[in-house]
Amino acid sequence: MSVTEPAAKRFTKAAWTSKWLWWASLNACIAAYFTYGLVAPASNIKTAWLPGKTTHGHHQIEMDCDACHAPSQGNAPPSASDVMQDACIRCHGDQLKAANDTHPASKFNDPTNADRLAALDAQNCLTCHQEHVPDRTLNMGLTLPADYCWHCHQEVAENRPSHAGMAYDSCATAGCHNYHDNRALYEKFLDDHFGEPDLLPDAKLPLRDTVAALSVAKWQAEPLQVGDADAPEDIVVSPELVGDWAETAHAAAGVNCTGCHGGQAEAAAWSDKLSVADCETCHEQQVDSFQTGKHGMRIAAGLPPMTPSLALLPMHAGTAHESLDCNACHPGHRFDTEFAAVDACLRCHADSHSLAYRDTTHASLWEEEVSGSGERGTGVSCATCHLPRLEGNRGVWVNHDQNASLRPSETMAREVCMNCHGLDFALNALADPLGKTTCYGNTPERRVESVQMAHDWFTQRQSKRRTKADQ
Ligand code: HEC
Ligand code: HEC
Ligand code: HEC
Ligand code: HEC
Ligand code: HEC
Ligand code: HEC
Ligand code: HEC
Ligand code: HEC
Ligand code: HEC
Ligand code: HEC
């Protein structure tokens, strides 16, 4: 490795030759693109067959028709009859299982539920989640009228006086019930957290445990310094690059240049361009979770990475064509997690919620933590809510699927807010109509009754049991 200043500004014959080569290859690429369009099932041609816009959950992979439609029907265009339920389960099965799905298909195998299935075929995802029908699509890809719980739960009002008079399109309102994920809303869970204060006494996040969470079984390595860098002789780098690396957790944990770039005698050759797979050798959980959310779903589908220019959400123009890969938040050789947690996000995101963040109490807490005046774990960054720290079997790690805690947002109550707030306050805050636009910088005005109702239900049941026992 030779350490020199970059030679970018030098004008030489070599530079002219490379410019010519660049033009030649650009022309070759354009020609190849059009040839490909003629002979292959090019995605742009397929979009012409789309009957309507794809949901906001899937718009990024819309061009990949075969992700959901069976490609087996030769050259026929995709249709409603070739959609594979298997495909839905391949991508979502694990998540729904992990979310303890309240209405899994298996629940309806029981013959006593036959009449319910006749009313609504709940074993088929497509009964409730169709595609390309924007005018019928509600929040979270639901394409049924919102009062559909009625088909199967008509007896609720009779069995539960507390529910009398409630409309069926209100069952699934924020903080009450979800169809799939009710982990923060089970009656027992609600009652267990009854009466908690708005702010818990030890309001703090767990600390990360990156080394324990590595995919490498046992990590034992000596810390490295500038002089230890092991890039091959012919690699030209700036002193800043090596300095950045030497200051990071990677050098401190013994991860040398070739650990990421290859180039050691027995391993693959050195490469300047890295992909998520190069990080995956050590950070499997982060790479896997990144690929199931909106940031990484295109990479997972084998498409070029997502860029802000393709987004439906408002984004800053300056970053329109930046690729969403690991470097989008962990740039250069610094891999600075504080930069990644707020500043990186705000280079791209420009919606009202993101822009409101800096004025919140949470943001002040985060600034205090970063400056050292607040205790570690007491700040709330964008990443605190969207890339939550989870307790895994190998230690606390960062879930890089920023959608996992978003749909439904009660997931966030359990995984994030309850580190610091009582459940009642968290549900109220998440259900507050102003919450999203103020980025949770306002005191919630609405009250969700769930916690109180669950508590009353258990208290009544207990007192009934007691009277029975007394008789
Ligand atoms: C994320 C999954 C997904 C992707 C990707 C996808 N579709 Fe679909 N498509 C569906 C679903 C679900 C339906 C509805 C099936 C039903 O109604 O039973 C559907 C229905 C259709 C229909 C029939 C509509 C009707 O009203 O009969 C056509 C045509 C279609 N898709 C074309 C396409 C084309 C072309 C592409 C690629 C450019 C594509 N789809 C990509 C999931 C997908
Ligand atoms: C190639 C993988 C893949 C396939 C196939 C797929 N999905 Fe998805 N789906 C995703 C990703 C990634 C997201 C966005 C992240 C998220 O919301 O969790 C998503 C989002 C969703 C959402 C939330 C939508 C929203 O607007 O918030 C629903 C509902 C959903 N998918 C249902 C389905 C159903 C039903 C099928 C089968 C027709 C299906 N998915 C097929 C990957 C897939
Ligand atoms: C009876 C209607 C119904 C059926 C059947 C159904 N869903 Fe859903 N799904 C919903 C509703 C309603 C939501 C909105 C969030 C909620 O209430 O859980 C949702 C949300 C989702 C989400 C995003 C939120 C989350 O909890 O992850 C995914 C992904 C999803 N469904 C996938 C599927 C798949 C895959 C199937 C088939 C195995 C399926 N759904 C079958 C009604 C249904
Ligand atoms: C296709 C029929 C069907 C639909 C539609 C349906 N459910 Fe259910 N639900 C069931 C079945 C079956 C059970 C199992 C318990 C039982 O037999 O009541 C159940 C159980 C439940 C439970 C208790 C879960 C537990 O494990 O403690 C709740 C709460 C619930 N449903 C709410 C809803 C809500 C809210 C909706 C609408 C968003 C809905 N259900 C839609 C069939 C359905
Ligand atoms: C933790 C992984 C990691 C380590 C360790 C690492 N790099 Fe990199 N390096 C990267 C990533 C990521 C990129 C950006 C790749 C891209 O843009 O596709 C990169 C880019 C480069 C480039 C390409 C051009 C540039 O200046 O950005 C060079 C040269 C380079 N690294 C040299 C080194 C040297 C020398 C070391 C050791 C002192 C080192 N790297 C250590 C991950 C690493
Ligand atoms: C050879 C194994 C290895 C590879 C490859 C690797 N890392 Fe790491 N990484 C580590 C170790 C070990 C740590 C833990 C350092 C610590 O906390 O002591 C770490 C820590 C990190 C951190 C946390 C830094 C901090 O300050 O807490 C980030 C972010 C990170 N890696 C990103 C990446 C990215 C992005 C890539 C791919 C470009 C990558 N890593 C490739 C081993 C690796
Ligand atoms: C949207 C921004 C973003 C992207 C993209 C991103 N990260 Fe991170 N990453 C973060 C933030 C923020 C943290 C620190 C979170 C914290 O401290 O709680 C982090 C922490 C980490 C850590 C250390 C914490 C841990 O989980 O042990 C590793 C390792 C890591 N990232 C690897 C990766 C890899 C590999 C990729 C690419 C697949 C990637 N990151 C893509 C934002 C991002
Ligand atoms: C390089 C630009 C870029 C960076 C950096 C970035 N994002 Fe994103 N983010 C996007 C794009 C593009 C989407 C997809 C939007 C779409 O599909 O319409 C997205 C989607 C999301 C979503 C899902 C929104 C939804 O409705 O499904 C969340 C949440 C999110 N980002 C949060 C963050 C956070 C938090 C950070 C920092 C830790 C961050 N992003 C960093 C570009 C970026
Ligand atoms: C206290 C937790 C919290 C913090 C801090 C937070 N968010 Fe969010 N964010 C949420 C919740 C909850 C939602 C879902 C709101 C809804 O749909 O009702 C959300 C939604 C989003 C969305 C989707 C917006 C849309 O219009 O659909 C993006 C993008 C996003 N957040 C990015 C960010 C960024 C970037 C930051 C930091 C600048 C940030 N968030 C800070 C909790 C938070
Ligand atoms: C690391 C701890 C921590 C986490 C995690 C956290 N908060 Fe907070 N939050 C606080 C503190 C501390 C305050 C200030 C309380 C006070 O001043 O009484 C606060 C204040 C608030 C406020 C009042 C805002 C204001 O400016 O007065 C709302 C609303 C709120 N949090 C919602 C949430 C939601 C929703 C979540 C989860 C998505 C969450 N918080 C996660 C620590 C946290």
Automatic annotation (TrEMBL):
Cofactor(s) of this protein: heme c
TM ranges: 20-39
Intracellular or extracellular location(s): Cell envelope
Record keywords: Calcium, Electron transport, Heme, Iron, Membrane, Metal-binding, Oxidoreductase, Signal, Transmembrane, Transmembrane helix, Transport
Gene3D superfamilies referenced in this protein's UniProt entry, alphabetically: Flavocytochrome C3, Chain A (1.10.1130.10)
One Gene Ontology cellular component: outer membrane-bounded periplasmic space
Reactions catalysed according to its record: 6 Fe(III)-[cytochrome c] + NH4(+) + 2 H2O = 6 Fe(II)-[cytochrome c] + nitrite + 8 H(+)
InterPro entries membership: Cyt_c552 (IPR003321), Multihaem_cyt_sf (IPR036280), Tetrahaem_cytochrome (IPR012286)
Family indicated by similarity: Belongs to the cytochrome c-552 family.
Protein name: nitrite reductase (cytochrome; ammonia-forming)
Organism of derivation: Roseiconus nitratireducens
